[in-house]
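Input:
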Amino acid sequence: GEDVEQSLFLSVREGDSSVINCTYTDSSSTYLYWYKQEPGAGLQLLTYIFSNMDMKQDQRLTVLLNKKDKHLSLRIADTQTGDSAIYFCAGVTSGTYKYIFGTGTRLKVLA
Amino acid sequence: GAVVSQHPSRVICKSGTSVKIECRSLDFQATTMFWYRQFPKQSLMLMATSNEGSKATYEQGVEKDKFLINHASLTLSTLTVTSAHPEDSSFYICSARDKASGQYFGPGTRLTVT
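Output:
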């Protein structure tokens, strides 16, 4: 089955950029998503990218997709303390609508 | 945007009892809903796909007799954890698929079995 890996932790200073990485094994995902989860809460959709795109920018968020290397990244510009959370990448298997989630990256923003 | 609710948000039950969790799509019809489980500090794992009017499809390793899923209407799916044990304590999240606009996640239900 699909494996989606993320680094476990990332710590940045307020105002710096954060880059969260995700690698996957199955290239059949049609859509790739980034979700944010705060402690004890559900998932908040941040952004998504179609598999035929290389980059998508949405305000402070930039998603880069390298299909050849099966690598997805989320860059958060001007990171704020309110961005501290766990970030999950997820791929949707074409035709099944099942989400396969990454292992999650815990982002800590230092004031 | 589309809203998915879950009820209850938190539940504590005694070992051996059953507990039902509801997932509702509030402003759209969802022919397909999904149930995920998230253990502390871990990722979400898909448990089953719930299809309106038919039997749920369970992922490998998920006991269908223990996790009963009923999708009786286009806006409601229920997950019943039968004979719950402490190892079933987890965060259960559902998602509902709107054919027109995508898939939306509920806020989650935290189950604690004592």
